[in-house]
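Hey, resending since the last one bounced:
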Amino acid sequence: MKMLDNQFLAAIREGRKQIGLWVSLTSNYAADVVAAAGYDWLLVDMEHSPNDLTMVLGQLQAIEAHGGAAIVRPPWNDKVMVKRLLDMGAPSLLFPMVQSVAEAEAAVAATCYPPDGVRGVAGSVRASKFGRDTDYFAKANAQTCVIVQAETLSAIAQVTDIADVSGVDGVFFGPADIAADMGLLGQHMSDAVWDVIMDAARKLIARGVPVGTLVTDSDFAARLLNEGFTFVACGLDTHILATGADALLAKVREGTKEK
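The structure tokens again:
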């Protein structure tokens, strides 16, 4: 057997627009529901959700069953966690709060086997179909997608240098944390925040670097893709559930006559 190429990595390298969804409900069943919709990629979140490794495994299996591209965000830039996620078959990782070139280099190193990095070696793991992919060790480094998050003004000031780190495949802007760093906590859709993001994003786009983000406004998500962003998540499963439940209840209450 041969290791399959990373479809998400190939798509962003070719500049094909990728529409994604955030997966935070920690359930393989919920992941199954949204993966069937046909999003290009789904992000399984460990930073801001109560996901553990077993939960993530079930969600990866559910997403892959529908042919979607799975990305996992580890809780931190930690080589031990990264090793375990890669061994269980996470093809792409989104590293939160990368603040410097050195931190970007550490993220890349954690995903690569020596001599290119520091990833520990195990033979019979899910990533290699338990040793059945005979070319896994030869291809794994090149087929693992590494995306780093720029989430502060300091990171944005260094973003071109961070993006230039060998092995970094894309930069993801975190508007909520950028807003907080600007003293605009909770105002992540404000013009001031997006002026900062767009200025940095345009510099990267001009250099051919794939850029992405997460927003919950579908029109704005489409606008970003039209303006050069390569991968944009247009919602979260938790947000869809909460707003859908609220809207349904409000509609029924509105149509119910008081006795």
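Strands lie at 18-23, 41-45, 69-73, 92-95, 145-150, 170-173, 211-214, 231-236.

Sorry for the duplicate.
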